[in-house]
Design brief:
By secondary structure, the chain is α+β, with helices and mostly antiparallel strands. Helix content is 63%, strand content 8%. Helix 4 crosses helix 10. The two termini are 18 Å apart. The model has no long low-confidence stretch (mean pLDDT 82).
Length: 571
């Protein structure tokens, strides 16, 4: 069911003008931020101005193709969601090393390798599910929100001060531009209505360019010089991709981080598009991971850096209330059109850093909260708390103690190259370690005379937390058992002890209650209200109805002297 805050859902067809304006907003947002990474890598490779222009154009093509691939809904390709692509920070450290060692040819070859690694991992996404639980995917999104917010603050405040030599008065124009832009976006989103809220980021971007020109932060001649040039078809790179085994590990780590980011982002897409969302649908996620890996592979073939889904753009779609996947195809086409128009390409490349920071800070808040909501949707026992808590501290320590990590031996450099990669590796390793000793099936005796129902409920809570089970599913398990316990005296033989078995296989929680006594009659139809009031025996029928409704599948059986009640709860 479409949530109330979503005006146009995944399969809706918004008016044409709304689709176009929404696509422009996402394109300006993604291109303005994403193009920074290819430019940094090109600079490290010592690319000429001509080569840089060609690479920027091809980068736009890669973004367009990857965005359209993600919007597809094929059995093994595409998630079917509006999840625009952006060049991923996870690949930046390794790409910079490749650029310095072998130029853009080596960057291209290693990026192709990274795309192939992500596609290969995607083939086993279901089997890897126990090692990539939802709370880890949510944690990846949470970390991306923190990284985006910190980078935004850096571009808004720290960079302008550094550029001004630490002189506040000299940095006032840039500081004013960033703060005013983010303030306008927030104000339009909080107090704006209709189109003003839907286009809050686009309005903020237009304002930022105008203010940048007025304050002298932006030099219009950077893009006005090419305004009269005719469209130009991007020329593919001349050099063949190269491969260096020494860089395989850092690019593979980047691919894993990109996969986790895609899983987290697509989980957010499912959540914001369905008010009844309860768990990730891995068929859609698998197609999205394939599209993500193929997009990176194509980006490498075009001579640019790796990419992934854009958490900020997904947050933007939630903020504006337009999540129709048709917008993704228009965004892809817009990127490709931009690639052949020199003035538009140069306009985006000239975006002032404070404005970039304002956009990142604005979107990072929504990305962070979405990730936190996914994490908190699971029951967290002490193991899960340590996984998330320790990984968060380890990730943040990279930005606090930068000199320490820079002093580590070169062999571990790929594993500590960024706070995001460090946090994700730490979370994956701790999750794998803490899985040791967790039983997938537990049994315990329950004596109604000697024990309280609360003891069983406490056992359900503890085991659900150890498994990282969804909070709402465990609550349904508890409600069903409480309902059963209300009629223990009527159907369970006096003086006997029940055996309660609880098992978990990532897709469902199964409760099996074995007892001596009478069979419990289950029904999907409510008993007659008058009969329940007049006949006490009909109360058991009412309990059977309520238990059957709470479980996704309920059945009874007889095994010798025992009656078996089996309840399945989809997870």
């Amino acid at each position: 069911m479409k949530p109330a805050n979503i005006s146009y859902g995944v399969d809706d067809r918004p008016p044409a003008f709304l689709v176009i304006l929404t696509a422009i907003q996402h394109t300006a947002f993604g291109a303005g931020m994403g193009i920074v990474f290819p430019l940094l890598v090109l600079q490290a490779a010592g690319a000429t101005q001509e080569a840089t222009g060609r690479a920027v154009a091809l980068s736009m093509v890669a973004l367009g193709v990857a965005t359209m691939l993600q919007a597809l809904r094929r059995p093994y390709l595409g998630s079917g969601f509006l999840a625009p692509a952006v060049f991923a920070a996870a690949y930046l450290p390794a790409s910079l090393d490749a650029a310095r060692m072998g130029g853009m040819a080596l960057v291209a070859g290693m990026t192709i390798f990274a795309g192939a690694v992500e596609i290969a991992l995607g083939c086993f996404i279901t089997r890897l599910r126990p090692f990539l639980p939802t709370e880890i995917a949510g944690f990846a999104v949470l970390m991306i929100g923190i990284v985006n917010g910190m980078l935004g603050f850096n571009l808004m405040i720290i960079h302008p001060l550094q550029a001004a030599g630490g002189q506040w008065h000299a940095a006032y124009p840039a500081l004013a531009l960033g703060l005013a832009s983010v303030a306008l976006m927030v104000a339009l989103n909080v107090w704006g209505h209709g189109k003003f809220k839907a286009y809050s980021v686009l309005i903020g971007i237009v304002f930022g360019y105008a203010a940048g020109a007025a304050l002298g932060v932006l030099a219009p001649e950077r893009f006005l010089a090419t305004i009269a040039q005719p469209p130009q078809i991007p020329v593919p790179p001349e050099s063949l991709p190269a491969f260096l085994p020494a860089l395989a590990v850092p690019f593979a780590v980047g691919a894993l981080a990109s996969l986790l980011r895609a899983v987290g982002d697509l989980t957010i897409c499912q959540k914001i598009n369905d008010s009844n969302w309860t768990r990730p649908h891995f068929r859609s996620i698998r197609g999205g991971v394939f599209a993500d890996g193929l997009g990176t592979l194509i980006a490498g073939a075009l001579g640019t850096v790796g990419l992934s889904t854009f958490s900020g753009s997904i947050a933007l779609s939630a903020v504006t209330g337009v999540t129709a996947r048709i917008v993704g195809f228009v965004i892809g086409a817009t990127f490709i059109v931009m690639a052949i128009i020199p003035s538009i390409r140069d306009l985006l490349a000239a975006m002032p850093e404070p404005l970039m920071g304002a956009i990142l800070l604005f979107s990072g808040t929504f990305v962070f909260i979405n990730g936190m909501q996914v994490v908190m949707s699971r029951l967290l026992d002490s193991r899960k708390v340590f996984v998330i808590g320790v990984s968060l501290v380890v990730g943040l320590s990279h930005d606090v103690y930068t000199s320490f990590y820079e002093s580590l031996p070169g062999a571990v450099a790929p594993l500590v190259s960024s706070s995001l990669i460090m946090a994700l590796i730490c979370a994956l390793v701790l999750n794998a370690i803490f899985r040791l000793g967790i039983k997938r099936k537990v049994s315990f005796a329950y004596d109604p005379k000697a024990q309280s129902v609360d003891d069983v409920i406490r056992s359900f809570e503890e085991q659900g937390g150890a498994w990282g089970a969804r909070r709402d599913v465990v609550q349904r398990v508890e409600a069903a058992f409480v309902e059963f316990s209300e009629h223990v005296g009527d159907i369970v033989a006096p003086g006997t002890t029940m055996t309660v078995t609880m098992s978990f296989d990532e897709t469902s929680i199964v409760i099996e209650i074995a007892y001596e006594g009478q069979i419990l009659h289950l029904s999907r139809h409510a008993p007659d209200a008058e009969k329940v009031l007049e006949d006490e025996d009909a109360l058991a029928d009412l309990s059977g109805f309520l238990i059957a409704r709470l479980a996704d599948n309920a059945r009874t059986a007889t095994r010798g002297r025992l009656q078996i009640l089996r309840l399945d709860f989809h997870h």
